[in-house]
Amino acid sequence: MEAAIVREKLDQAPAILAEHGIDVWLTLVRETLLTRDPSLDLVAGTYCAWQSAFLVSRSGERVAIVGRHDATSVEDLDAYDEVVPYDESIRPGLRGTIERLAPESIALNYSTSDPAADGLTHGLWLVLREALEGTPYVDRVASSAPVVNSLRGRKSASELARIRAAVDETEAILALVGAELRPGLEETEIAALFDAEVSRRGLGYAWEPSHCPAVNAGPDKDIGHSAPSELTTQRGQLLHCDFGVEKDGYCSDLQRVWYLLDDGESEPPLDIRTAWEAVWAAVDSGAAALRPGALGHEVDAAARARLVSAGFPEPKYALGHQLGRSAHDGGTILGPRWDRYGSSPLGTVEEGNVFTLEYGAPVPGRGYVGLEEDVLVTSDGIEWLSTPQRDLWLVG
Length: 396
Description:
By secondary structure, this protein is an alpha/beta fold.
């Protein structure tokens, strides 16, 4: 299946190169167990023991230049027109291929803003410069960020199927954990319930297992990337969990909230209902703005203004990030134009992108209302890949 996805992505690449005015996209990698370019999974999905080069041209030609002992695994992909093995040095084959293709522009994997497009090491950049010394091509390079953003972001049919499967697994686990909740459970005990299901189902974690899931019981926890603690669930308080799995190389990322009914209660109190409605109104505002052609910061601004106008603090994070091979999959983000995000909020939303939509608000003395859903950008809006948690889940 991995080879099939590589072929799907490489089939997408020529049109994307043409859109961005790039003649050749070059992914140059070294020994990949130590330093793995994020784009390697798009163009090869295999391990490389020696320096390797994967070239895709606007015309559709695909050339892989790899160490002799890596050649068979690349040939088995059935994805490249030519696989060029070498023994002593990659430089002659790399230079010869580029001279034959004679590109006016070469996209390389470096970027100041997008980690998914920043896999080229400085050392390999020097190797490339030396290999192309005396040719005009050394001055024809540009960042591959627009290409990688589009190629990684426009999910193929097989990629979407895997993301849907990861979301389904996540929702099933959340339902099982929810059935076990009661007052007096430590965050660590709740995390153990998640862990047991991840292990039983043979899944991976969407991010670092030490804080996947993030479990936040009540108002005394700093919300963020922190490990479960000995805080316990209490009546009259909220429980918030941030959780995702990795299945067959693709991820989910969801946040869910429960309220532990206090004695005599049959529904949440007004302060919690008010926060819940405000957060959903903000998420829905962002969802309404999320469509092909929108800029990332525009989508975030629609949600951010709605939440702040309801009297809640401005979130210090983005409304959403792309989702795929990683929980944070690079490319355009739905975030404000803050320096820490670089140019990512200036990116354009494209059909086939998968984003999270996540916002939250604190409720003093109660805890945190934090929502996160996974959505697919369609030709005229979005499709919810997750089942939106429209109602606060109650623990009696």
